[in-house]
Amino acid sequence: MVANQPKPDLSMQNKVAELTPQQYKVLCYLHEGLLNKQIAYELSISEATVKAHITAIFRKLEINNRTQAVLVASDLKLHMSSSQS
Q1: Is the pLDDT of residue 37 over 70?
Q2: Does 58 fall in a domain?
Q3: DSSP string covering 23-57, please?
Q4: pLDDT value at position 84?
Q5: Is residue 55 one of the residues assigned to a domain?
Q6: Which Pfam families does this chain map to (predicted)?
Q7: Is residue 26 situated within a structural domain?
Q8: What's 37's domain CATH number?
Q9: C-alpha–C-alpha distance, residues 32 and 11, integer Å
Q10: How many helices (H) and strands (E) does the chain have?
Q11: Do 30 and 54 contact (CB within 8 A), yes or no?
Q12: How far is it, in rounded angstroms, from Cα 2 to Cα 56?
């Protein structure tokens, strides 16, 4: 197992559940490998807003980078269809 890899557990699921619907969408797009500019286009928001959402996601999930965010999304099998919106 890779060091510092987030483990899927109830606490992480609860943290993801606390994301806003827009933050959840951003996390799903990160999981799909989209760049900030592409996420901004898909959500019709500015790139600065995407960056703000990503910062909030990192804070709420207590992670430090995109790779960890993708691992969380992958471990929890997050998809846009299970979005909170």
Answers
A1: yes
A2: yes
A3: HHHHHHHHHTT--HHHHHHHHT--HHHHHHHHHHH
A4: 45
A5: yes
A6: GerE
A7: yes
A8: 1.10.10.10
A9: 23
A10: 5, 0
A11: yes
A12: 24
In a domain, 7, yes or no: no
- 48 or 83, greater pLDDT: 48
3-state helix, strand, coil in the chain (%, to 5): 65, 0, 35
Poorest-confidence range of 5-9, 37-41, 75-79? 5-9
* pTM score, whole prediction: 0.81
How far is residue 75's CA from residue 72's CA, in Å, rounded to a whole number?
A: 5
Separation between Cα atoms, residue 9 and residue 85, nearest integer Å: 23
- Domain of residue 21: give its range: 12-80
Backbone angles phi, psi at 78, to 5 degrees: -75, 140
